[in-house]
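Intended use. Records like the one below are meant for learning the mapping from a protein sequence to its folded structure. Do not use them to infer anything beyond what is encoded.
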Amino acid sequence: MKRILISNKFYYNRGGDCVASLALEKLLKGKGHDVAFFSMQHPLNYHSEWEKYFPSSIDFQARGLTKKMAAAVRMLYPIEVKKKFIALIEKFKPDVLHLNNIHSQLSPIIGEIAHNSGIKVIWTLHDYKLICPNYTCLRNNQICELCISTKQTYCVLRNRCLKNSYLASSLAYWESLVWNRKRLIKNTDYFIAPSQFLASLMCKGGFPNSQIKVIPNFTNRNYSQVATKSSYYCYVGRLSEEKGLRTLIQVARELPYKLIVVGLGPMQSKFLNIDNIEFVGFKEWNEMAPILQRAKFIVVPSEWYEVFGLVSIEAQCLGTPVLGANIGGIPETISVPQSGLLFESRNAEDLRKKIIQMYQTSFDYQQISKDAQERFSADKYYEEIIKLYEQ
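Structure written out for the chain above:
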């Protein structure tokens, strides 16, 4: 059995990368492997026997010159990260380091240290950071591939892509120079792309196809029996512009169907006081699952290159169809028309038509659940990941 060290910047269910990292830890332990975790200290972290090795928390949203300087130092010269990580690998002696979302708060320095120590380095990608310093391939809320097509990251600085801030964009630019493509490729054995779409963009951005393996994300939750469907549809996720919520609000308020919105984010106030939209805020899985399970369908209206779409496969595992934007990795999670439909991203009229069509379509909910649980099973993921560990 392998000794595997997993790393992700947070150790609680903050986002999709965290959910995937924690699920991987649980899966590997269940298969009998020795597993350790390297993360950043945070008040919401779950307890870990390895938490004494976690470097201190860094908040890139914090105000004040001192805190901003600390964030810049962490991003470019992560002395504490290096010290804590070396202490951990000397104690744990891993065979494999499995990276997830580590940029900025942790740093790719840990991959380089592991590589130089003879440890195999596997990196699951959860965004576009390695080819887009802005993570999202967005500029002014529009799709942008300049840094990918030119293989030059100065575009992020020239266009102030991060928060329209020269300072934030400068830090992202310098980070991309320090952790350039050549250095990342050298220190990583394999990059895992959850979707073929992400893999193709990585290749377009200069990463070798031979080092990129497409392995879809998995789910290892226990799903209950498919429930009787209610009359509402729902959205689950972060409430932010790139998720397509402005378009969804525009359409939903004009339709006679009830929309339930689950999540938090900067756009949450936009959902208040609209008659046919119910905003229920953030929900843990045990509260969210029944909402997903009874929904007529869920809508994933993203307007950015969604890497994969974890909520899409979780909904399907519960027997709930998905109406997804035809963008990024979302189409790879939906079997049209068996488990849902696609609409043109940013196209309000197409979204309206497809919502109506979803209400008029009869789906085999039991079959959707069965197919999704087989396709995105933990065992299938494990079979693929162990091949990379053992090669």
